[in-house]
Every structure is written in structure tokens, then in C-alpha cells.
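Sequence only, no structure available. Ideas?
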Amino acid sequence: MTEFFGDAWPAVARFHSMLVDEGVLRGLVGPREVTRLWSRHLLNSAAVVPFLPERGRIIDLGSGAGLPGIVVAAMRPECEVVLLEPMERRTDWLTEVATQLTLDNVTVERNRAQDVHGRLVGDAVTARAVAALDKLYRMALPLLRPGGVLVALKGDKAEQEVQDAKHVGKKWGAGVAEVALASTIAGVEPTRVVRVVREVAGVR
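Reply:
I predicted one. C-alpha cells follow.
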């Protein structure tokens, strides 16, 4: 695991400790998830990183507890990572985490995606357990510049979601969505990642 995370390991390990210590108490993770934080949450979040640019602005939509946004920020130190989250108690947590982990590349913004359309624009958007893809397109694609990429962590129904969202994606200027199986370390199930480029600006 240390080798997998490389230079990001100290920050990710500390983040894990913070989630164990405070995650359940603050309603950020369920009690049953504590023993599965590595396999189901932190490594799952890390699976998006190879699909992201090495520089530029990454917007983590609906950051919640900081998954995948905090992990992405630790593993992509040359990127500006904006953690976009509407709930105050979660943004307070995210600010504390970024400070304690000394993640100087993190900005926390308390807002809904639709309220920052036209103001906040990134080179990539990440999303995990936010919404079905047809709804996610409406929230995420306006946050991308043309040529920017949406990388969404999805479950077993990823391919079906891609089909169901095809017309919405086209309306917002999305290219063809790809579903990839992203592996992390041995013994951990691969993660389904949906990757789609916003080719043109699109219209509402």
C-alpha cells in the first residue's frame, strides 16, 4: 500500500486515521464502513487518479467526507483541487482535513454545482456516489471547459447509466463516455470509472 500511494502515503494514512477517529461521530461514514475504509473508500477513490490530468484545476463534486477529493489532492499535488460541497458541517470537516494534512492545493467551497455554473470552471470533475449519470451530467458538465474531463466512480450498472444518459450528455456537449475497470492493489476489486470529455460547450 505504501508503494501504491508513493509520496501521498503520509497524507492518505493521516486522512484514514482522521476518518477512523471522527468519521462516524460526525456522520461522515457509517459505523460498518470503518473496517472497510481502505478497500471500499480510500483505494476506491485513488482509482480515479490515473484518469485525471497532472496539472490544472480538478473540481470534486459533492465532496462529502473528502472521497475522492482529499485522496486526489494528495496524489495530484501539482493540481488545484476544489472541494465543492453544499453542507456546512462537511465543509468544516474538509477545511480541517486540508489544514491538518497541509494540502495547500485544496480550496473548499460551500455551494451546489448549479449555483457556480458559469463562475467555476475546471479541467476535470470527479464525482463519487453523487447521482445517476443523467443527473450528474447536468451538474458536472457545465463545470468543465471544452476539452475537460468528467471522471465518475460508478458501480455495476455503469454501462446502463451511460446508455440512459446518452441524450443528456449530447445536449451538454459530451463526447462518447467510456467505462473502464481501474485496478489499485492486489486483493482489492477493480473500480468502474466512467470517463467522458466535454467536447463543446453545449446548451441548457
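The chain has nine helices and seven strands.
Hope that gets you unstuck.
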